[in-house]
Each structure stands twice: as C-alpha cells, then as structure tokens.
C-alpha cells in the first residue's frame, strides 16, 4: 500500500485502482475511509483511481495535531498527494463531504484541478444545505417501499431534533436507490470506516468561509460536473441545482433512481456519465 508524507509529517495512504489518466478521489463521511468507494462501480476501467485515505482514516496515520482534521487544513493534503505522484494538475472527484475539501482546494489551487467531478456533494463550504421540504419531497418518492412507514416516521423525528440512534438506522434506506443486500452491507460498514473524533473536528470553527468561497468559485474556469441522485435524501437535486449555479462552467446531471451512492445504485448509468465528462468536459 503506497504512502506519502503530508506537510506536517503525517503519513497518509492512498489506494490505486485501474490504469490510465489519474483521477484523485476524495471521500466523504465526513472522515470515512476511502474503502467505501470500492472501484466506483467500475470507473477504474476508464481512469486510474487514486483514492486518498484522509488523515486518521483507513490506512492513514492519526496526526499529532487533532485540529488538522479541520476541513480547510485537509485541503493541503491533496496538493501533497499530487506532488508525491508528480502531477502538476489532475482531474479530481469528490463525494459528499469530500466536496468541501475539493472546492476549497480548487479555489486555492485552480491550476492544479483540470476537471472537477462532484458526486452528490455537500455544500457546507458555501453554506448551502437542503431544507426540510426538499428532503420531504424525496421521502415521498419512496412511499411504495416495504420499509417506508417506519423510515418516514423516523425521518420526521430526526428532522424535529428528537431522533435516536434507532431512528438514524431506520432512515438508512433513504440513502440508497435500492435497499438490497449490497446497500445494506455498504451501510453496515460505515460505523467501522468513520473516525468520529475527526468527523467532529471536520467542521470546527474556521473550517469554512462561505462568502469568500462562493466569490472564488464564480471565477473558477475549469469544467465541473455536479452529479445528483434523483432519490438522494441527503443532497436532493433541487439544492444541487443551486450548487451547480455557483460555477461558471458547471454541468448538472441527475441520475434517475439513485441515492447518495449512485455508483452502487446503477453503475451502468454512473460510469458512462462520469467518464464522458472526464473525456470531454463540457
């Protein structure tokens, strides 16, 4: 397993899948080991996937300074990985909370990002979160599912701030387009893949400067793909349309029937869509 040293000396690990043009992949969670990516539904057959284990996750070391888990400080680990790989620039893919790292890296180091693919991205770095009605609209899409009644009731309790651990478990099916054995195993693995201390520090005070980031993204000229899942409770298409509008050269694509992990729900749809963008941009 290859490793490299971050600027502060923390040893970070990454995983390589496939061959071809490198694609640096940043996981979400926040602070979830990159193992949950798998090979992104077979995208490794199109480009070489370089999957970073963020500090304190997966095979990467726990840093001496726990404040270095803060999102804005994680940004420079991306540059250190590119330096280690000998890449002046590369395509970058980020999922969910990893998008907060990616957009901050893009505005600090625009020339090092050739194309930016944001998969069901979080908008915390730009202060853009879905409201409850956006999420309710997604919930209603699943009303014919056998698990719906229990999950919908749990969703309301969570939204009201009264959710228990059991309620959070009950709403897990909403994060996937199909609540099958593959999705259930993927969801069950999350607890062992997340560094909770790091996740708590990820959004600590000072991690984000939304106004400055929005202003910088308005000048970001590289091609951007924002991929939404039509059934994604966490990042509904309505909020991701607003997110995509922050970029001057962004393309919003909505994957039918997909949840928060679209490469699991329909890899035959996901891979060609992302590969076409990486090949051609806009």
- Give Rg in angstroms: 18 Å
Q: Mind telling me the CATH class?
A: Alpha Beta
Largest sheet report: 8 strands, mixed
User: Helices and strands: which structural class?
Assistant: alpha/beta
Average pLDDT, rounded to a whole number, is: 96
Please name the CATH topology: Rossmann fold
Overall tally of structural domains: 1
Q: Note the gap between the termini.
A: 35 Å
Strand adjacency order, main sheet: 1-2-4-3-5-6-7-8
In DSSP terms (H or I, runs of 4 or more residues), the helix count works out at 11
Shape: globular
What percentage of residues falls in helices of 4 or more residues? 25-40%
Residue share in β-strands: 15-25%
Please characterize this protein's 3D structure.
- This protein is α/β, with parallel strands linked by helices.
- It has a single domain, classed as Alpha/Beta hydrolase fold, catalytic domain (Rossmann fold), CATH 3.40.50.
- 38% of the residues lie in helices and 16% in strands.
- An eight-stranded mixed beta sheet has the order 1-2-4-3-5-6-7-8, sandwiched between helices.
- α2 (98-108) links the parallel β5 (90-95) and β6.
- α1 crosses α2.
- The mean pLDDT is 96.
């Amino acid at each position: 397993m290859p490793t490299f040293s971050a600027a502060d000396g923390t040893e970070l690990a990454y995983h390589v899948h496939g061959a071809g043009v490198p694609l640096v992949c940043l996981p979400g969670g926040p602070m979830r080991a990159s193992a949950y990516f798998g090979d992104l539904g077979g995208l490794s057959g199109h480009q070489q996937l370089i999957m970073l284990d963020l500090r304190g996750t997966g095979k990467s070391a726990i840093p001496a300074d726990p404040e270095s888990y803060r999102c804005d400080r994680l940004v420079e680990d991306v540059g250190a990985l590119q330096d280690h790989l000998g890449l002046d620039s590369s395509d970058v893919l980020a999922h969910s909370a990893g998008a907060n790292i990616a957009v901050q890296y893009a505005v600090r180091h625009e020339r090092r990002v050739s194309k930016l693919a944001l998969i069901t991205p979080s908008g915390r770095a730009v202060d853009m979160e879905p409201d409850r009605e956006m999420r309710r609209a997604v919930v209603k899409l699943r009303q014919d599912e056998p698990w719906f009644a229990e999950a919908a009731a749990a969703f309301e309790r969570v939204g009201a701030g009264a959710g228990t651990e059991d309620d959070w478990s009950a709403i897990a099916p909403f994060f996937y387009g199909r609540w099958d054995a593959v999705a259930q195993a993927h969801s069950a693995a999350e607890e062992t893949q997340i560094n909770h201390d790091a996740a708590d520090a990820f959004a600590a005070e000072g991690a984000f400067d939304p106004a400055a980031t929005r202003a910088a993204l308005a000048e970001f000229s590289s091609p951007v793909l924002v991929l939404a899942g039509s059934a994604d409770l966490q990042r509904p298409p309505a909020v991701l349309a607003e997110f995509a509008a922050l970029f001057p050269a962004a393309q919003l694509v909505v994957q039918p029937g997909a949840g928060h992990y679209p490469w699991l729900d329909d890899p035959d749809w996901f891979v060609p869509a992302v590969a076409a963008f990486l090949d051609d941009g806009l």
